[in-house]
């Protein structure tokens, strides 16, 4: 015999009143009581799964920074994870090489989004003609200006650590090689563009967000950014370095 929920039982279950039960088949006509608390728990889990990712410690702050930066989708600044928030955070994490790109607003995502949102491109004071590569040591960000306007939006970088500080100032690119060998550190430096001494732009050789590593004075870039900078640069291109990396 098959047991069916009556209209009353269904209404009681949906209403979620105390003591409500769901009747399910259990052998020959027997009924099993399923507490509403179990149904409610399942609903919460299902809702979380629908959002696509968990709520991180810095959810509201990251939502605010992503909204200010723009370009990663619609986010609601309420500190509550949603499918749209999850998608936007994942897209942001993927763009800036944050691992894992799972949509969780953790400390690295918070740090990167805050730095990018706080960067003031006008502080570079780029020349009105041609290309200027801008580096903000304070926020550990970099961007490109063309004819006095933003050409490539701010992205993340990692400059010289303590004892190897990247100096501030205005410089010119004086050497470019698609793949440069570093004798002191015995590593290849892809998309190398030197602008002072042994320092220059190049694709990072390690996880960019391992801050404790720092660089030995170079401006480390994600692969996509290193390639974009390489395609825009030439001998004589202007590089403006402002601020100072904290702790150096």
Tags for this model:
single chain, 248 residues, alpha+beta, L,D-transpeptidase catalytic domain-like, five-stranded mixed β-sheet, four-stranded mixed β-sheet, 11 strands, globular, disordered N terminus, cell wall biogenesis/degradation, cell shape, LD-transpeptidase
Give a summary of the structure in a few sentences.
This protein is of the alpha+beta class and 248 residues long.
Question: What would you say this structure looks like, in words?
Answer:
The chain is α+β, with helices and mostly antiparallel strands. It folds into three domains: 7-50, no CATH class; 52-117, no CATH class; 125-242, L,D-transpeptidase catalytic domain-like (Beta Barrel). Helices cover 29% and strands 25% of the residues. The chain has six helices and eleven strands. It has helices spanning 7-15, 36-51, 59-69, 83-95, 107-118, 223-232; strands at 23-25, 31-33, 131-136, 141-146, 149-156, 169-172, 175-182, 187-196, 199-203, 219-221, 238-242. The strands form three sheets. Strands 5-4-3-11-6 form a five-stranded mixed β-sheet, sandwiched between helices. The protein has a four-stranded mixed β-sheet with strand order 7-8-9-10, with helices on one face. Strands 1-2 form a two-stranded antiparallel ribbon. A hairpin with a 5-residue loop joins strand 1 and strand 2. The longest helix is centred in the N-terminal third of the chain and has 16 residues, at 36-51. It is globular. The model is unreliable at 1-34 and 36-50 (pLDDT under 50).
């Amino acid at each position: 015999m098959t047991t069916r929920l009556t209209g009353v039982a269904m209404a009681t279950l949906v209403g979620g009143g105390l003591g409500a039960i769901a009747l399910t088949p259990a052998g020959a006509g027997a009924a099993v009581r399923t507490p509403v608390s179990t149904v409610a728990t399942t609903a919460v889990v299902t809702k979380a799964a629908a959002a696509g990712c968990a709520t991180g410690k810095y959810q509201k702050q990251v939502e605010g920074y992503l909204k200010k930066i723009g370009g990663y989708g619609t986010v609601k600044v309420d500190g509550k994870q949603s499918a749209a928030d999850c998608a936007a955070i994942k897209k942001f994490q993927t763009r800036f090489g944050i691992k894992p790109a799972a949509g969780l607003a953790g400390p690295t995502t918070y740090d990167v989004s805050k730095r990018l949102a706080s960067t003031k491109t006008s502080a570079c004071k780029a020349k009105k003609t041609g290309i200027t590569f801008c580096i903000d040591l304070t926020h550990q960000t970099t961007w490109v200006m063309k004819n006095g306007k933003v050409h490539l939006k701010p992205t993340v970088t990692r400059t010289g650590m303590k004892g190897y500080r990247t100096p501030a100032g205005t410089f010119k690119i004086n050497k470019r090689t698609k793949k440069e060998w570093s004798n002191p550190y015995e590593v290849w430096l892809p998309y190398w563009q030197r602008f002072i001494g042994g320092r220059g732009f190049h694709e990072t050789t390690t996880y960019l967000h391992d801050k404790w590593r720092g660089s030995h004075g170079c401006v480390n870039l994600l692969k996509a950014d290193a390639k974009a900078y390489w395609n825009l640069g030439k001998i004589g291109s202007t590089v403006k370095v402002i601020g100072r990396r904290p702790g150096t």
